[in-house]
User: What shape does this take?
Amino acid sequence: MKFKIILFFLLVFAGNTYSQRYVSKTSHVWFYSHTAMEDIEAHNRQAVSILDPQTGDIQFSLLVKSFEFKVALMQEHFNENYMESSTFPKSSFKGKITNLDQIDFKKDGSYKVIVTGDITLHGVTKAISTEGTIDIVNGKPTAKAKFTISPTDYNISIPSVVENKIAKSVEITIDAGYESN
Amino acid sequence: MFVSCISLNAQDIDDLLNETDVNKTEYATATFKSTHIVSGHSIERMPEGQLDFRISHRFGEINSGAYNLWGLDQANIHFGLDYGITDWLMIGVGRGTYEKTYDGLLKLTLWRQCKGEKNMPVTISYLATVAGNSLKWEGTEPLPFWDRLSYTHQILIARKFNERFSFEINPTYVHLNMVATEVDPNDVWAVGLGARFKLTKRISVNAEYYYVIPPVNDFRSTTTYHPLSIGFDIETGGHVFQFHLSNSLAMIEKGFISETTGNWLDGGIHIGFNISRVFALK
Assistant: This one.
């Protein structure tokens, strides 16, 4: 038993020493909802992300209340009525780059990536797959992706009076600049 | 081994998020849905650059009988435009049927309820209003303009206890430059109590009561009562509808605090509703 515990810690620390990871503390995540009646967008520049170039693990996490809207009342409604950010303060993505073999993190360039994983939003977890790019400049990667999600998939109810103002599918854009950690 | 690595990773990202959370102080938002609880003000203001257009109605007294369709034949209206100059200062103007009154207001938020790095248990706002009646003067002597005016000062203190329940207490002073007879007081003091309880995300039940000091029934030319109102807020995204029952007809402080003549116990109740529509001007 003792041996197993020691082995466990050895392996954990061993794992940490040779895994060089990339960390982003100021990822920019924003969404855009377009309808004939109204365009709504909000920006979160305080999202965090970890990218592990060895395993292809990529994770994002953000605080819902940090989304900034032009109209303060919209921000209040977003937090109070739609995202219920006091009950579900965080949204996250946990996934993997599936074409890791096509990316050379040591060589500058622009790489197409395919990412699959789970989005957790408003307490609901859904699998998602999207294409994006990783640009490596001076050894530092920047990850970009654009995809759409549907509020109803995440149990976000939209009252009928504002149905025409909130898009059925909302466009999410991600822009994460990493530093080595 | 693989599993433990994943969970370690998950821990990492949460730590990273907590460590980069720059908004260390969390302010209470939406203590009330609207700038008014029913007739009186809540601690809420319009944020900077936003304009609130409010249309409020009070019908006649329910006990006025079938002939007046239980009050629905008589409608009293108040229009108000309230604008947020900054995130802590709101100004407004209004006009009401009650005594053909024009009114103006100024509301400042002095402290905001927050927790985290800074802590404050309540939000405190200050409200000052001025109201001038524009009724035709029937007297023989001309009426000086100043005699038409009345003023209200309120300290609004509210706490959002949780997502559903908020409570407010309002020490209030009303000064009337002119009153109907010599026995009526020019200075009226009152303590307002207000509360809201959210039934669903968008619907709340609100109640408001003002205890008027002294209980002036005995010494006034007209019998007055403590104003009590109960109603619902229904928020539809952009609009807030407030539907309520109240024993006061007036929708400005001077009127409902010092001149409420309806009595709940004998059906002196008005059906009323407010509609608030917010426009973003900036």
About this structure: The longest strand of chain A covers residues 124-137. The radius of gyration of chain A is 19 Å. Residues 116 and 129 of chain A are 4 Å apart (CA to CA). Chain A has one domain: 20-180.
